[in-house]
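Usage

Read records sequentially. Each one opens with the input sequence:
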Amino acid sequence: MTKQQGCPFCEGTGGRVVFEGAKLRVIHAEEVGFPAFYRVIWREHAAEFSDLSAADRVLCMEAVTVVEQCLREHLAPVKINLAALGNMVPHLHWHVIARFADDTHFPGSVWAPVQRETNAAQEAAVAVRLPALESAMMARLGTRSF
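and closes with the structure output:
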């Protein structure tokens, strides 16, 4: 496996691991104010999506799709945000984030300025549903060679 010294995703998990496959892992990111923030992280060090083979690009996006579908089914968010920036950590990863109308930054991105106070009750309601969501995620991801 190709690793790059100093890369946080090569040297660590990047968050609490939900699923670990041969080619990628899905983690729950500990992002304050965003209880349903996940990342799909490619295992080998690749900076850009186009660094992957065509088959691996399809596999990666299938994993992103599974995470998105599970978030929608279990949490019914207003919107799912997908992002693959890599400016801060140039290791291929996709952010998959369930967004709610009363989250602190909505309708702006999670990196935009704060719009309102934290809704602790909403965050707690989401957090209590994460175990079932993640069980479904693991079951679906486990049926493929991710």
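Summary fields computed downstream for this record:
- The two ends are 15 Å apart (CA to CA).
- The chain has a mean pLDDT of 95.
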